[in-house]
Specification:
It contains 12 helices and 21 strands. The protein is of the alpha+beta class.
Length: about 500
């Protein structure tokens, strides 16, 4: 009896299993699901980089030499123009002293030569003064001699440049004394009684009196240099020639004897007294005009030595913080080597490395989320690099610069993790990207409805590393199967708990 019941039970179980297979076809597939979400969707790229100062400046020495002093230290705040470091100045200062000594010696020698020329010119002018043969011609000769004397004084004044020594000055004074002694024969008036002088004056015509008055020397504060050739002479030789030419002109127009009318308009028209310079005339520096090539060369040597001395001390070109110092006192530093790095840490920048395939989506102005060792912040893209670079393992990437918002202040050189918001949509549908299947004829999702997988076409929008935006084909809250790669449309599924 019991044996019969056992056989009957086994037959019933077998029949039930057979019936289940016939009704269900295949076993149900265990799946994971996710609901369609609604909200703000962001297309982002996760990259990394490092923080740096907003502006960097590397001070490099212009010359090589031994470092005498370093004025700054790492982390120090400095201002534009502050000293950074300096080299040993001993040799350069000695070269400057030697150049200055050569310049002073050359100037002294030239001033002595000028004084000697003044003496020669004064004697030449004196020799050309006309001889007095009557009271009137003596007056004219005296007036002309006075003018010649003033011209000689002007030459002496031009020879007395800055820095002239006592010996040169004495030489010029001796030259002037020699001229006065030589011209003493024409300077005094003849010893004529007062009555005869008055009578002679009464006999003069009005025009003669005016002409004689024009021959007398002007006030002491007037300019006595008349000829442009005298003013613009470039050296001692041309000055001497111009002086001699002027003296010859005066001599030719002076009265030669008592037979010639000394007071004729033609004779009186030559006035050795200089006319005042035009107020519109350009100022002339006689010292510069008379400077010789030897003096110019010595001045250039002094200038070069002063520039060399200035190059031995390096100053900062900007305000900022000293980020690095590569010099030590007593060491030899080469020209052009990086010595001190200064950065504007008040304005930080973050340089990020972006993969080549994402770089095309990066634009200036996009928002960025930043994190540096727990220091969180935001910023925006301000610059894209123009060149691509290769990484350690052959990957290709480009660089971008991000300007952080206020409050994000990591240390210079600190590593930074960033998320660039490449695009975003508000109030949209999105799902994990594993829910979307791409086939030849489009993209699909599988919805889980009543224990079965239902294949549905969808239109997608933005994509990120983790999510895909759904523009059509799904509704908010709908349950979709994750990774439905081996499912059939209408296949039985069981949701994993």
């Amino acid at each position: 009896m019991k044996k019969g019941l056992t056989i009957a039970f086994c037959l019933l179980a077998a029949a039930a299993i057979t019936l289940g297979v016939l009704t269900s076809g295949t076993p149900a597939t265990v799946v994971k699901t996710a609901e369609v979400s609604v909200g703000d969707f962001e297309y982002t790229a996760e990259v990394s980089g490092e923080a740096s100062a907003g502006e960097l400046y590397t001070a490099m020495p212009a010359v090589s030499g031994r470092v005498a002093r370093v004025y700054v230290a790492e982390g120090q705040r400095i201002r534009k123009g502050d000293k950074l470091f300096s080299f040993d100045e001993t040799d350069t200062r000695n070269a400057l002293k030697q150049a200055q000594y050569e310049l002073d010696a050359t100037l002294a020698a030239e001033e002595l030569n000028k004084a000697e020329l003044v003496e020669q010119e004064a004697v030449a002018v004196m020799a050309m003064a006309p001889e007095p043969e009557s009271m009137v011609s003596a007056r004219l000769a005296a007036a002309q001699a006075n003018s010649f004397e003033q011209l000689a004084q002007d030459v002496i004044a031009q020879a007395q440049g800055p820095g002239v020594d006592l010996g040169v000055l004495n030489k010029a004074v001796e030259a002037m004394a020699l001229f006065r002694e030589a011209a003493s024969d024409v300077l005094p008036l003849p010893d004529i009684p007062v009555g005869e002088q008055e009578a002679l004056t009464d006999m003069m015509e009005p025009d003669d009196e005016a002409a004689l008055a024009g021959m007398l020397p002007p006030p002491a504060d007037a300019s006595f240099i008349e000829d442009a050739a005298l003013v613009g002479a470039s050296d001692s030789q041309s000055l001497q020639e111009a002086m001699m030419e002027r003296a010859e002109t005066l001599a030719e127009n002076a009265p030669a004897s008592s037979e010639a009318s000394p007071m004729s308009p033609e004779a009186a028209s030559v006035n050795p007294v200089a006319a005042p310079a035009s107020p519109d005339a350009a100022p002339v520096n006689p010292a510069a005009a008379l400077e010789s090539p030897e003096v110019a060369l010595c001045r250039e040597k002094v200038r070069q030595a002063e520039e060399a001395l200035n190059r031995l001390t390096m100053t900062s070109a900007m305000d900022g913080e000293v980020l690095g110092v590569a010099l030590r006192e007593g060491e030899i530093a080469a020209a052009g080597s990086g010595a001190v790095v200064i950065g504007d840490t008040d304005r930080m920048l973050v340089t990020l490395r972006v993969p080549e395939y994402e770089l095309k989506n990066v634009e200036v102005g996009q928002r960025v989320r930043l994190d540096s060792n727990g220091i969180a912040g935001t910023g925006k893209v301000v610059k894209r690099g123009a060149a691509l670079m290769s990484g350690t393992y052959g990957e290709v990437f480009g660089s971008i610069e991000v300007e952080p918002d206020a409050g994000f202040a990591p240390l210079t050189g600190a590593s930074v993790e960033a998320e660039i918001i490449l695009d975003e949509s508000s109030d949209t549908l999105y799902v994990p990207r594993e829910c979307v299947v791409t086939e030849e004829d489009g993209r699909y999702v599988y919805a889980c409805e009543d224990g079965k997988a239902k294949k549905k076409p969808v239109t997608t929008g933005l994509e990120s590393d983790y999510f895909i935006e759904l523009l059509s084909g799904a509704v908010a809250g709908e349950v979709l199967i994750i990774a439905p790669f081996d499912l059939m449309d209408g296949g039985a599924v069981t949701v994993e708990m």
